[in-house]
Each structure stands twice: as C-alpha cells, then as structure tokens.
Amino acid sequence: MQGDVMERLQKVIASSGYCSRRKAEELILKGKVLVNGQVVRELGIKISGNDEVVIDNNVLVKENKEYILLYKPRGVVTTTSDDKKRKTVIDLVQSSSRVYPVGRLDYDTTGVLLLTNDGEITNLLTHPKNEIDKVYIAKIKGIISKEDINKLRKGVVINGFKTAKARVKLKSLDKKTLTSIVELVIHEGKNHQVKKMFEAIGYEVIKLKRERVCFLDLNGLQPGEYRHLSVKEVHKLYNLLVNGK
Ligand code: URA
C-alpha cells in the first residue's frame, strides 16, 4: 500500500503477512495494536501507508507479496518448522520473505500447495463461504461400488460432521490389484478429510494427490518443483475470491 490509499487496519496487518485477518482483529480488540503510538481497539479504522503500525512491540514491516505454487512431494510436512526435524515444504522453496502454506496436505499426500505471505488471500482461500474447488485423485483399496460413490456425493459423516455434497467420478478400476481410482471435488478442508470420507464408507486410501485448487494446477511441474504465480494469476485469484465465480 502506498501514499494516501486508506485501508482497514486489520486488512493492512493481514496483507503484510504478519497473521490472518481474523487474528489481526483479535489483536486489535485485545489492545495489542498501536497506530502512530496510540492503542487502537476499534475494527473499523482505516489507515494509510504512511501510518506506523506496531503490534506487540513489533513494527509492522510491509513485505512484498509472494505467491508460490509448489508441487508437494511425498515425505514432506506442511508446516513452517517440525519438532521431529522432518523436511518441511518451506525447505523446498527459496523465498526472500516469510511465506507459509495455505491449508495443509498430509505427509504422504502430493500435489498443489500454495505458499504465500499474503494473509488476505490465505483468509479468502480458506474461508468455507468461498467454496474453492479442491480436486483430489485418490487410489483406494478395493473395487468401489456405484452406491458408495453416491454416498460420497451426498456427504458422509466424519467425526460427527456431515461433509457437504461433493462431485465424485470413478476414473478406473483394477480388478487384478483390487484398487480403484476416484476423483473428488470438495470445498471443505477438514483434517484428513478425503481419507476420512473413504474410511467412513469402508475404504482405505493408499495414494492421494491434489490436482487442482481453484484454477491452479500442476501443469509443467514435477514433484518438489515450484513456480511463482504471475501477476495476472494473482489478480484472477483475487477477482474470483472477492467477486465470486
Ligand atoms: N484429505 C486428506 O485426507 N489428506 C490430505 O492431505 C488432503 C485432504
């Protein structure tokens, strides 16, 4: 943000990559945020790029935004650091800012993962009301029946919660190895959601890949490789998220 453009305080904090917009709102309400030396406890106030923001004694640095699309390989954790010293998705990318993953893929799941320092886009991408398509390809043990595919479409109960309607397609069946390949398009992002959805109807997922998030896919990338989004892609993403599909 530059010059006299006025933006809401929580948006400025989230856009800097410091934290999500919701977290910024919490910090403001707790009286942890100072603008030009004054504590601000209201959520509505607008500030300009010339105003100094201090949070918990840290001066807010307005970082350049970065958007990285990673083809997450197996055997890597989706966190910024790991107690068990396992490789993290952050170890796979070179970045001059503090990027972090948007959402989570399991250790053994591969596929599309966005890394950014833009708290605003993180918030928009992870908010359930925005219903972002996430396309998964699951290889499961067993020959899945039409009835079971329909159960997934209608929603199944996992951890006492009924999943929303999903688009589900059978891609192939292998009668020799007794495995099936199924494509699922979901909007939600509960922990281990796809594995739990199959578990709920009696199947084990043996391989899971996320092929697409919104319009971002793996074209041109190999596992472990990444690329930066173009300015055009970032605009397209914001437009879709803010103005709807
Ligand atoms: N669902 C899962 O079960 N695992 C993932 O990594 C992503 C979605």
Report what the structure shows.
There is one protein chain. The chain is an alpha+beta fold and 245 residues long. The protein has three domains: 7-59, RNA-binding S4 domain (Structural Genomics Hypothetical 15.5 Kd Protein In mrcA-pckA Intergenic Region, Chain A, Roll), CATH 3.10.290; 67-128 and 216-243, Pseudouridine synthase I, catalytic domain, N-terminal subdomain (Alpha-Beta Plaits), CATH 3.30.70.580; 133-213, 2-Layer Sandwich (Alpha-Beta Plaits), CATH 3.30.70. It is built from six helices and 17 strands. Strands 7, 8, 9, 10, 13, 14, 15, 16 and 17 form a nine-stranded mixed β-sheet that branches. It has a four-stranded antiparallel β-sheet with strand order 3-2-5-6, with no helix packed on it. A hairpin with a 4-residue loop joins strand 13 (167-174) and strand 14. The longest helix has 13 residues, at 231-243. The two termini are 26 Å apart. The protein binds uracil. Residues 105-106, 109, 192-195, 208 line the site of uracil (URA).
